[in-house]
Design goal:
By secondary structure, the protein is mainly alpha-helical. The chain contains ten helices and no strands. The two termini are 38 Å apart.
Amino acid sequence: MITPDVAHYLIAGCLILLGAGGAGIGLGLAAIGVEGSSTRQQTGQLQSFNAMIIGLALIESGAIIALVMTMMTLFNRPAEFTWPIIWAEAGTAIAIGTAAIAISIASSFVVKASAQAIARQPLYASKITTYMLIAQSIIEAPVIFAFIVSLLIRTRIDMAMDMWAGLRMFACGLAVGVGALGPSIGQSMFARSASYAIGINVHQYNRIFPYALLTQALIETPMIFCLLFSLLFLYVTPTAAMAAIVTVKGLVAAGTISLGALGGCIGMGYMACHTSAYVALDPTVYNAMVRTALFTIAFIESTVIYSFIISLILIIR
């Protein structure tokens, strides 16, 4: 039989397992991509290697944040474990663990694509590396949001809280954890495509770069909606009579906003990744393609806003 004490250590183990496992997979994928590009084009080996070292350090950040939260879970423990506390800790684990594995793997595709671009255009390695770092930094944002929510959850854990309070904290972690999957997938699709486009036509860098930053920021916005939901719901304190129904509605709302963000981000990433490739192949279509892409992204973004509105209605009514 699993007791709260046993569950506590299982949660700590799963947290670092997801964070370190995701980073390990991401590091391996990135290194394999760099080796492949160096084999095909030896001229840019040194530049690709230097970019890889910087990229690997950023991929590692998810594991570091998971390590910090695991240490806090193990050493900043209450006097006695209860199931409400375990549910709250599970919320931090799903938030940090899922976000860490998502951003680590997503970031690896950017490093791989950038190394291939540098192999094609070694004289422009600094520009390609600059884009890679900015793209990776934006991709890393979900795990930072998850860390913020997890810290706030830990500040609200106390021995007196009931099961419903623990489940509400779990819902907050669930929203940012599952919500992190969408931006990670969408941004990795697009950033990889943008790096590839720069590699095949580096002379369009000044056009692709600002479009890429704007698009990645737009793909990131659904994660901000997930963060806002978690911050709002974390401080909901219903009466005892309403605790059960408010908690159930919060769990439904967490699924609504996180899955809405997942679909929206993948749609935006899939749409945007084709635009950069077309621009690299035919620069004359830049204005038409960017206009079409941004217009479509705005419509896709509205579907996430609908999910956010419904999630807010669920927790405030």
